[in-house]
Amino acid sequence: MKKFEGMGVAMVTPFKADGSVDFKSLEKITNHIIEGGCNYLVVMGTTSEAVTLNTQEKNAVTSYIKEINNGRIPVVLGIGGNSTQQVIDNIREADFEGIDGILSVAPYYNKPGQKGIMLHFKEIAMACPVPIILYNVPGRTSCNISSDTCLELAWSFNNIVGVKEASGDLEQVMEIIAGKPEGFDVISGDDLLTLPLIALGGAGVISVMGNAFPAEWSEMVSLALKSKNKKAREIHYKYKELIKLLFIDGNPAGVKSALNSLGMCNNSLRLPLTGVSRSTSNSINTIIEKLRLKDTVV
Q1: What CA–CA distances, in Å, run from 278 to 73, 151, 185, 241, 282?
Q2: Which of 44, 99, 123, 296 has the maximum number of C-beta atoms within 10 A of its C-beta?
Q3: Are 12 and 253 within 8 A, CB to CB?
Q4: Each residue of 238-278: pLDDT tens digit?
Q5: How does pLDDT run across 34-59, given as a tens digit for each residue?
């Protein structure tokens, strides 16, 4: 299996009730994910609430996850932003020991054109000492990395090794898969689109769902990659409603509610994010109890 094939997990950062980082729960969640069959960890991504962490906290969380992981599986570090020079400075200042790649989001807020996106990632590629996964999530950035731009980057830079595609545009995904170089991975950035994306030739998913149910979701991904589609579909549909609930009030509010229901961490977020509604929380708890009951009966 290639380094970034299968299920990566976009890890949450658990907080105590006072808003400080909960390292005890972070250890529990990290082991839960790894022991559940995750293929690689993604730290300091959107789901980690990295934009609300200061530099000292980011470094402390990343170092602690690397310590708990202890080389068991690869680790991808989120390093991105809307200032090209600041991203390069962050790369130069980063400790890459125990880091196998970076995930770099398209520049947000500025709304650059495709030329600007191309030059942004060119500078990052020339500065970065580890492989780079592009992150295309126009719903958050208001900036789409077009298939043409993605493919030009993939063919031009050997250290740009994949793209996390969260555009929701399967036609764009197909264009990238059809035109990409050998060894370039197209990775789902949407849990619910993972199964169809793999069927089109994708390499797996960077998952939010995997924080809560890593064993079940990594099995679905593994089965899909082996073209065992009937069993993969069964798992997909079993968890479909829960996945929808995880995002109905925003991410990572939903998955933190699920992790709280599972006894993994407090349901605490940092402003401006807030927890899910009581209705959504009750629905998540109900579905998790039903899933547990089914598994017990089986």
Answers
A1: 36, 44, 39, 17, 6
A2: 44
A3: no
A4: 999 999 999 999 999 999 999 999 999 999 999 999 999 99
A5: 999 999 999 999 999 999 999 999 99
Active site residues: 135, 164
CATH class of the structural domain 6-227? alpha beta
Nearest 10 degrees: Cα torsion 93, 117, 129, 76: 80
- Tokens representing residue 202 in the block: 């994708």
- Of 294, 297, 217, 270, the residue nearest 15 (C-alpha): 270
Q: Is 77 helix (H, G, I), strand (E, B) or coil?
A: strand
**Overall average pLDDT of the 143-155 stretch:** 98
Q: What is the pLDDT of residue 286?
A: 97
- Map residue 59 onto helix, strand or coil: helix
Mean pLDDT over all residues of the chain? 96
The vertex-179 CA angle with 177 and 182, nearest 5°, equals 75
Residue 232: exposure state from Cβ atoms within 10 A (0-12, 13-18, ≥19):
buried
Q: Tell me 208's DSSP state.
A: S
Is 122 within 8 Å of 87 (Cβ atoms)?
A: no
In terms of Cβ atoms closer than 10 Å to its own Cβ (0-12, 13-18, 19+), residue 293 is: exposed
CA atoms of 120 and 123, how far apart (whole Å) = 5
DSSP for residue 158: T
- Read off the pLDDT of residues 154-195 as tens digits, 9 standing for 90 and up: 999 999 999 999 999 999 999 999 999 999 999 999 999 999
Burial code (b: 16+ CB inside 10 Å, e: under 16) for 267-278 equals: bbbeeebebbee
